[in-house]
Amino acid sequence: MKNPKNCTNILLVGLEKEFCRSVAEELSAKLQMHFASCEELVAYHVQERELILERVGLDYLKKREKTALAECAGYMDTVLSIGFELFKNNFKLFTQSVICYLRLEKEKIKDIKSKIAYDERDQFLQKNCHFKIDLTRKDKQTACKKIIEILGEKL
């Protein structure tokens, strides 16, 4: 993916969404930027997920998710976190974001789906993110330090 231009946000994505969220929170504090979790924003906009699926179907649910993510993608001066599943279908919305892949080794991944499909998901993220941060362990401080270093070089 080409280096971003005119970006106002930083989007962190990875196969461990809770780790991404905690790094994004830490990074936002260090950079004195706002923080938002895409998962939480979608959950707020789609509070009755099961009822929506039952009554109007998956297509409508995906449309509601996309609307919420488009709102999130339009934020300014914000560090965002997103899990793989939401990112996979909506990454093109984040044109105002520098997209960073927090890459953990397969052994460090707890999510069963991500562990099973690790190679495929890893390849997708490497292709569709501006840069990746290779981590050998879940360490927020190291992740933030590496992100800040790379951002200083790229922007």
Features:
155 residues; alpha/beta; Rossmann fold; five-stranded parallel β-sheet
Plain-language structure description:
By secondary structure, this protein is of the alpha/beta class. The chain has a single domain, classed as P-loop containing nucleotide triphosphate hydrolases (Rossmann fold, 3-Layer(aba) Sandwich), CATH 3.40.50. The protein is built from 8 helices and 5 strands. Strands 2-3-1-4-5 form a 5-stranded parallel β-sheet, sandwiched between helices. The radius of gyration is 15 Å and the shape is globular. The two termini are 15 Å apart. The model has no long low-confidence stretch (mean pLDDT 89).
Number of helices: 8
Mean pLDDT: 89
Strand sequence of the main sheet, in spatial order?
A: 2-3-1-4-5
> Do you know the CATH architecture?
3-Layer(aba) Sandwich
- Tell me the total number of β-strands: 5
CATH superfamily: P-loop containing nucleotide triphosphate hydrolases
Rg from Cα: 15 Å
Largest sheet report: 5 strands, parallel
> How many domains?
1
Q: Output the structural class.
A: alpha/beta
Name of the CATH first level: Alpha Beta
